[in-house]
Amino acid sequence: MSSDIVSSVHEPPPEVLTLLVLPPLDTLSADRARGAVCLWCPERLTVETAVDLGEQSTGGRRWWPRACGPCVGRRAHRALYDHVALCEPCVDDVGQCATGLSLSRLVRRHRR
């Protein structure tokens, strides 16, 4: 399997990450900024529990946020709800929109 395919299966696309609304880097503790703790809750993360949210760049600083699956699922669900309300293709079939489809997959993958 090519690395592009593996990456697309395991990491949310960058345009979808913006809809999850990551907290500003300067508001995060060192553990959250380096991905040891979930961005949104106090869950300590392991390789098995962390969802990689991709490389981010803020004010010339690079960081690699991670979150727990349940938090990603809840954020993706909220983002999907907001997105569908504004996206005509999603009203008919969420599978016709790449963003709607990616958010739906995140919700399904990270349900509690």
Structure description:
- It is a single chain.
- By secondary structure, this protein is mainly α.
- 48% of the residues lie in helices and 11% in strands.
- It has six helices and four strands.
- It has helices spanning 3-10, 14-20, 30-33, 69-86, 88-92, 98-109; strands at 50-52, 56-58, 61-63, 66-68.
- The strands form two sheets. The protein has a two-stranded antiparallel sheet. Strands 2-3 form a two-stranded antiparallel sheet.
- Helix 4 runs antiparallel to helix 6.
- The chain is globular, with a radius of gyration of 14 Å.
- The two termini are 28 Å apart.
- 25% of the residues are buried.
Summed up, the helix count is: 6
Q: What is Rg?
A: 14 Å
Instruction: Compute the number of strand runs.
Output: 4
The largest β sheet comes out as: 2 strands, antiparallel
**Structural class, from secondary structure content?**
mainly alpha
Principal-axis shape equals globular
Percentage of β-strand residues: 5-15%
Mean pLDDT: 85
Side-by-side strand order of the widest sheet? 1-4
Order of helices and strands: HHHEEEEHHH
- Tell me the distance between the termini: 28 Å
Low-confidence stretches: 1-9
Residues in helix, %: 40-55%
